[in-house]
Amino acid sequence: MKILAVDDEPGILRVIRKALEKEYEVVTVCRPSEPLPATLTDIDLIVLDVMMPGEDGYEILTKIRDDVTCPIIFLTAKALEEDVVYGLALGADDYLRKPFSVGELRARVAAHIRRDKRENTSCIRSGSIALYPANRRVTVSDKDISLTKSEFDIMLLLIMNKGQTFSKEQIYEKLYGYEKDGDESAITEHVKNLRKKLSAGGAEPVETVWGIGYRWKKEE
After folding, report:
1. Is 122 among the domain residues?
2. Range of 159's domain?
3. Which residues pair with 2 in a beta bridge?
């Protein structure tokens, strides 16, 4: 498994490398002096800092998101929720606020990697929607829609458990295997973005159960 860490602080990159190198191959890029790898197809997860001189994390994410399917975890010193929301909307899967603990970093990375390795069935259908877990493809009325890693994983969980309501905390725990560090605001944004993309194709299968969470509509 190969992890790419991108930051403008050499000290942060050393911490990330030391924290993860026993479990993964870690490639570090110090921006803006070092270029990103020419290809990202062999990267299994990206840890990406937001605040960097020149091209920031938002710009890098926008440039690479269509070409990579691996999880992307933002590192951010920003405390405002709207900044986090913006990053998730662009296609980040998760985020860590600086300063972060080594244990939390390891847990987040391991959870996303573990989720990526789980075996899935070949095709799941619900009305006009078809979901193909093997290649992480989703179509609505035979038209492809582009989902981020976390949007796809949430959709897979809900569609596999039609009619069952999941709280935001339960969704985080079931997808990533850690409840303690889950952030409910991230789940809210991922579900909002998922709904918007499905709705654009004419499908509205995700219901809000007020005060509890979300569920996939049962087919009548």
Report:
1. no
2. 147-216
3. 25
